[in-house]
Amino acid sequence: MDSSLQEIQPLLFDGIEMGAPVIIAGPCSAESEQQTLDTARALSDIGVKVFRAGLWKPRTMPGSFEGVGDKGLSWLQSVKRETGMAVATEVATIEHVRAALEAGIDILWVGARTTANPFAMQDIADALQGHDEVAVLVKNPVNPDLDLWLGALQRILGAGITRLGAVHRGFSSAGAHLYRNDPQWHIPFELRRHAPTMTILCDPSHIGGKRRYVEPLSQIALDTGFDGLMIECHCNPDHALSDSAQQITPQDLSALLGRLVMRSGRPVEDELSLLRQQIDDCDHELLAVLARRMRVAREIGLFKKAHNLRILQPQRYQEVIKARLEEAESLGLSNDFIQRVLEAIHEESVNQQL
Length: 354
Ligand code: PEP
Ligand code: MN
What we know:
49% of the residues lie in helices and 10% in strands. β3 (86-91), α4 (94-102) and β4 (107-110) form a beta-alpha-beta unit. Strands 1-2-3-4-5-6-7-8 form an 8-stranded parallel beta barrel, surrounded by 5 helices. The longest helix has 36 residues, at 271-306. The protein is α/β, with parallel strands linked by helices. The structure holds phosphoenolpyruvate and manganese (II) ion (MN). Phosphoenolpyruvate (PEP) is lined by residues 28, 54, 58, 111-112, 139, 169, 206.
């Protein structure tokens, strides 16, 4: 285990008591000076001390809103001047880092797509050399790979940045899921083992992808020892140019924070809730896999119909059961239990094909 990550101390921000949850809020993207300042003022009024807004937006599809770029830096400076909040933005290239440092941005965060790329991480680390005044947050990589996340943190640390933290925003996965990004909570929990005192925040907005998931995910995060939340807030979320479905208004944030059960001080990790969370993760995966299996069954049904084949093919079924039982046994699963599960699945598959 990397000894230097073990020693990273919690991030402190003006106006946030040591041990109190760090709340970072602001729009996915700064869109105009007006929208940035309106949102920032409303957030400052409800007591938020750290403001976020993306200026350079990594977008999956070309042609979507890619951020306002450098010109938004002066808007963030206005937010800082007017409200006293610390300001944060995402950096992905050497040029972003230089421009943000020059503008006096307090916190730089590295987005999930960038964390997944060691070349880009090294460029960012090199550009940060000698700037130990800035705080850096590293979001998890898009793919569920703890080592990539650790490696990215180590590169930033290697540049002499000790005001370092991490943000859990979930992981991409194929197929339909409840959330936009699969939380796979065990990965940030494992990160905690490597960096026991480092600030680890949760971004329920990018995990959930929808407004209604922000609150329950935030509560899970606080219950499982995260040090705070990064939540996307927009003064007019329905008209946001990016991530509209997951942004909430500052008023909604205020109400949500009022309902959350906050823990004082660094929460003691509650073993039982960590374990329960893993059970929830497993159940989500199981349901997604079952849904995929039934979809394939329906496709097979259509294929058999088109080719005039019988739906029930007993020999194939016997072979499948035998192979699955052997596999299950090697995984330590009881024969009787798996037989019952497989029968139930097979029955539903046949129903779907019919
Ligand atoms: C964001 O915070 O707006 C963002 C792009 O996040 P992520 O890198 O987690 O997708
Ligand atoms: Mn976003």
